């Protein structure tokens, strides 16, 4: 069986061209948040490249861009928006790989392949927003109320689509979804692997909590009388780490991330702290157990210190096992492109494939990240490894027919 005739030089040229939209001048870093000027310019350029490849372009109401063939087809892609301080490959690799495989399939007369760049995967407004709305895990009305760090809502940002926006596509037109991505972790790079075939994407829970204390003068308020919200957070963090230790595995991760301290002044006892707690694991049962521990610990700490507690509705994404048929094709493609130099592995990062698993069979392929670096201007992968991934993807599509 002859593998689809992908063009590595054309693929790399397009990948570098996409990097020019939002280029920071710091290494290969990019700043291309969802609906930014750079993001929309990149999507318009991508639409042009899709049309040149003989694909019909379609923007859905959330701004996700599809390059379509007629009739049922395999869908390949990822996202082209970036973190505020982002790397050039996160998401972009999967989009351009999808474009190149779809283009090669057009030139070869089949098999039918469409491609996609989802919008707001990186979470300027939500989490994997474009694919979440399409998959029905988030309504468009709810999504429109989400605010970015600058206070702009997704609904306001979507107005920038103008006449580009069309209807949501019927997912039944697609036979499955493949997503190629950088690993974003150190395993392949450290072990000398060329490719990783994903077995499952971990689940995620995210809670936003607020500890409410009493704001007061930092010089005159005695320690025994204080209701210091930040000290409550410090105690919560220490206690939570101790309690999680008895439940987690080496693959479990948890992070206290976005912290807002009020009034955040050097001479004022903090009266309020708002923060996020996120944890990820491949077991739904373990995710539940960790949530119970987190909620109980927060209640206990606040009760001990006289603090009020608010907990916002949680974000929840279940672990997703890859489709056996699509995964087997990727394994065959990996062996074709990198004999003996690939491995099966989990994904600790979230991807659009998580949402699409509600709509169709999904599978994922990883290439190494140098030093395990991602979400940083220093993110990089050798061009040799990028091309190896492209060849494996093309071989998988050929095997699927």
From TrEMBL:
Binding of Zn(2+) 2: at which residues? 90, 122, 375
Protein's UniProt keywords contain Hydrolase: yes
Cofactor annotation comment: Binds 2 Zn(2+) ions per subunit.
Q: Where does Zn(2+) 1 bind?
A: 79, 90, 181
MF GO annotations:
hydrolase activity, acting on carbon-nitrogen (but not peptide) bonds, in linear amidines; metal ion binding
| Principal EC category | hydrolase
Give a yes or no for keyword Zinc in this entry.
yes
Question: Taxonomically, which superkingdom?
Answer: Bacteria
**Required cofactor names:** Zn(2+)
- Assigned EC number: 3.5.-.-
Q: Which CDD domains match?
A: M20_bAS
Keywords assigned by UniProt, alphabetized:
Hydrolase, Metal-binding, Zinc
- Cite the NCBIfam families for this sequence: hydantase
The family note in this entry says: Belongs to the peptidase M20 family.
- Which PANTHER family does the UniProt entry name for this protein? ALLANTOATE AMIDOHYDROLASE, ALLANTOATE DEIMINASE-RELATED
Report the protein name in the record: Hydantoinase/carbamoylase family amidase
Q: Which organism is it from?
A: Alloyangia sp. H15
């Amino acid at each position: 069986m002859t593998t689809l005739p992908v063009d590595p030089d054309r693929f790399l040229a397009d990948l570098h061209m996409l990097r020019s939209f939002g280029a920071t001048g710091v290494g290969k870093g990019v700043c291309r948040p969802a609906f930014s000027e750079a993001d929309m310019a990149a999507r318009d350029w991508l639409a042009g490249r899709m049309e040149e490849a003989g694909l019909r372009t379609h923007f859905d109401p959330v701004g996700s861009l599809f390059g379509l063939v007629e009739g049922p087809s395999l869908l390949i892609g990822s996202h082209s928006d970036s973190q505020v301080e982002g790397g050039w490959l996160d998401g972009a690799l999967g989009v351009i790989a999808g474009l190149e495989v779809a283009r090669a399939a057009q030139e070869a007369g089949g098999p039918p392949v469409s491609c996609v760049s989802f919008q707001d995967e990186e979470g300027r407004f939500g989490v994997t927003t474009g694919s979440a709305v399409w998959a029905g895990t988030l309504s468009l009305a709810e999504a429109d109320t989400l605010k970015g760090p600058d206070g702009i809502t997704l609904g306001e940002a979507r107005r920038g689509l103008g006449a580009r926006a069309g209807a949501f596509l019927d997912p039944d037109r697609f036979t499955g979804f493949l997503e190629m991505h950088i690993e974003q972790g150190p395993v392949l790079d450290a072990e000398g692997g060329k490719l990783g075939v994903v077995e499952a994407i971990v689940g995620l829970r995210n809670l936003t909590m607020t500890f409410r204390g009493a704001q007061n003068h930092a010089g005159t308020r005695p320690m025994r009388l204080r209701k210091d919200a930040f000290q409550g957070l410090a105690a919560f963090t220490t206690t939570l780490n101790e309690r999680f230790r008895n439940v987690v595995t080496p693959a479990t991760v948890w992070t206290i991330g976005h912290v807002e301290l009020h009034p955040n002044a050097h001479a004022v006892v903090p009266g309020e702290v708002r923060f996020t707690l996120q944890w990820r694991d491949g077991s739904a049962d373990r995710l539940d157990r960790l949530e119970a521990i987190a909620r109980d610990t927060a209640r206990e700490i606040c009760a001990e210190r006289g603090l009020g507690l608010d907990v916002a509705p949680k974000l929840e994404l279940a672990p997703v096992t890859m489709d056996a048929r699509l995964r087997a094709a990727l394994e065959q493609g990996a062996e074709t492109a990198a004999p003996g130099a690939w491995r099966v592995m989990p994904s600790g990062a979230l991807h659009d494939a998580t949402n699409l698993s509600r709509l169709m069979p999904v599978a994922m392929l990883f290439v190494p990240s140098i030093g395990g670096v991602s979400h940083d201007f220093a993110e990089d992968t050798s061009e040799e490894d990028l091309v190896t991934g492209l060849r494996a993807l093309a071989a998988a599509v050929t095997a699927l027919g």
